[in-house]
Amino acid sequence: xxxxxxxxxxxxxxxxxxxxxxxxxxxxxxxxxxxxxxxxxxxxxxxxxxxxxxxxxxxxxxxxxxxxxxxxxxxxxxxxxxxxxxxxxxxxxxxxxxx
Length: 99
What we know:
Elements: H1 12-23, E1 27-28, H2 29-36, H3 40-52, E2 56-63, E3 66-73, H4 75-92
Antiparallel strand pairs: 1-3, 2-3
């Protein structure tokens, strides 16, 4: 039996956001936009979903006169990502038997 993949992380854009945050201390909205080529609207929605789930922490503020949204991964997000990766490994490490 395979472990279920977290549906929240199974979205391509949400998985990209979490994957980026695993490797950096924090990232801002424009960085995500540049790395994912996502539209502002879609990116905003996906960040909100991850934030509501407690996987990331979002801080909104200003850099000069411009608004700035900065995201950091939470311990819950790290744990969810690690479980997701382990579940994927379970799918990849099939026991060699082909039915």
